[in-house]
Amino acid sequence: MTIQRTRSLGRPTLDAVAARAGVGRGTVSRVVNGSPQVSPEARAAVQQAIAELGYVPNRAARALVTQRTDAVALVVSESGEQVFAEAFFTGIVRGVSTGLLGTPMQLWLALARSPLERERVEHHLTSQHVDGVLLLSRHDADPLPTLLAERGLPTVLGGRPARMPRPGAQPAHFVDVDDVGGARQAVEYLVGKGRRRIATIAGPQDTGAGRARLTGYREAVAASEGQVDPAMIAYGDLSEASGAAGMRQLLASRPDLDAVLVASDLMACGALRALREAGRRVPEDVAIIGYEDSPIARQSDPPLTTVAQPIEEMGRQMARLLVARIRGEALPAPHVLLPPHLIPRISA
Predict the structure, then answer these.
(1) Are 230 and 211 in contact (CB under 8 A)?
(2) Fewer beta carbons within 10 Å, N or C terminal of the chain?
(3) Same fold, 71-176+312-338 and 179-309
(4) What are this entry's molecular-function GO terms (predicted)?
């Protein structure tokens, strides 16, 4: 008896929270579980009682009843070096964290690029460990989407899947940015500035974003010039070095070019360096536009005109879709497409 009384005093119960808040036990349970079916007044009273009593939900006991872990995974199929260096990934994490506020769900981050990392992550991604998965997979060959579908885990992709499901199949749930429209907008801006020989340094073509940005470039150039010159297209791997190499290739094949759309800001910084080495002035001789509006775009010399992506909103929408799927809520659509916008700076 003494042990039980000490435990009760040391760990407030759901009933104690209900008594303090002046509501029923069921109302407290709904607040703790993130249910929207609670009035703002009752929610505020329960949250105040939880804070005053220091109530901590017993997740293990609740999991036995609800068959949920209250955990979701954000899995990134890239190296740690790339994840922590690129503003895209940190923005997604901030957005997802914001999107999970007001729910009981905890977020854990996993990197799955090396074989060892992938084996560890695949072992953990089961319904015994997580309720759902947010997956940032930039490469077509990534097997994780298929594996998660086979295990029946609710999954939301960051970016359009490599292959859309066949009609009648389970729809793909994803959040993406309209990269075709963003690249088209950038080229149209250059045309409006009087540029007529517009090249591009495209990103990896085994990624949805890389293909979409190149498609947008092709469409806009074809609409302006009537055809696309293959000599005006180089490819990079999103690194600064590949941007410099791509720029040198373009200058060698088309020295008369007067503008370049680059598929990432980091590659655009490499292109800027190659242009300086070649004695070309930016923007007087060659205008340049990057993509993503990362911090480096504002710090480059000159500052980069760039296509900005609503990265944090992308993370919030990914979290919103996943929570709805976990709760079995009806969705108006299985995917969300967000609009990018151009930010003019000195480079163009």
Answers:
(1) no
(2) N
(3) yes
(4) DNA-binding transcription factor activity; transcription cis-regulatory region binding
Provide the edge-to-edge strand list for the sheet that holds 106-111: 106-111, 71-76, 132-136, 155-158, 174-177, 335-338
Domain residue limits, the chain: 2-57, 71-176+312-338, 179-309
pLDDT in tens, 195-228: 999 999 999 998 888 999 999 999 999 999 888 9
Band (97; pLDDT cuts 50, 70, 90): very high
Residue 319: pLDDT over 90 = yes
Phi, psi of 68, deg, nearest 5: -125, 155
Helix (H, G, I), strand (E, B) or coil at 134: strand
* Dihedral pair phi/psi, residue 237, rounded to 5°: -110, 20
Per DSSP (E only), the strands in 207-320 are 233-235, 259-262, 287-292, 305-308
Q: What is the rounded CA–CA span in Å between residue 59 and residue 17?
A: 16
Look at 42 and 217; give whichever has higher pLDDT. Answer: 217
Task: Look at residue 166 and give its three-state secondary structure.
Answer: coil
Q: What is the pLDDT of residue 64?
A: 44
pLDDT score for 36 = 72
Strands 287-292 and 341-343: unpaired
Average pLDDT over residues 123-130: 82
Higher pLDDT, 114 or 218: 218
Compute CA 115 distance to the chain's CA centroid, rounded to the nearest angstrom: 23
The superfamily CATH assigns to domain 71-176+312-338 is: Response regulator (3.40.50.2300)
Check: CB of residue 78 under 8 Å from CB of residue 111: yes
The stretches of 204-264 forming alpha helices (DSSP H) are: 208-225, 240-253
**Residue 279, CA atoms < 13 Å, CB-side half-sphere:** 1
Instruction: Show the tokens assigned to 236.
Output: 């990079």
Q: How far apart are CA 4 and CA 271, in angstroms?
A: 69
The C-alpha atoms of residue 85 and residue 55 are separated, in whole angstroms, by 38
- Which architecture characterizes domain 2-57 according to CATH? Orthogonal Bundle (1.10)
